[in-house]
Design brief:
19% helix; five-stranded antiparallel sheet; 1 helix; alpha+beta; 5 strands; globular
Length: 75
């Protein structure tokens, strides 16, 4: 079983000439969002949502790689 649950995934086609994938997921009882470049799945930003605000998130590399693998399968 994976330590996270993907809740939503949005693919932004041709946003300012580039395509991005935004993934909303739950991890350790908190909600996160990560945006990746669609072409190479490079991280653009990561956020954790706490108390009605969003803050930059520092996620483990292993978690990010697992999410990238899920995204590759879905796109």
């Amino acid at each position: 079983m994976k330590p996270y649950e993907i809740k939503n995934m949005i693919i932004d086609d041709e946003f300012e000439g580039e395509e991005f994938v935004t993934i909303d997921f739950a991890y350790q009882d908190e909600d996160y969002s990560i945006t990746l470049k669609k072409a190479d799945l490079e991280i653009i930003n990561t956020w954790v949502f706490k108390e009605g605000t969003s803050l930059p998130a520092n996620l483990p590399d292993q978690l990010i790689e697992s999410i990238r693998e899920d995204v590759k399968k879905k796109i």
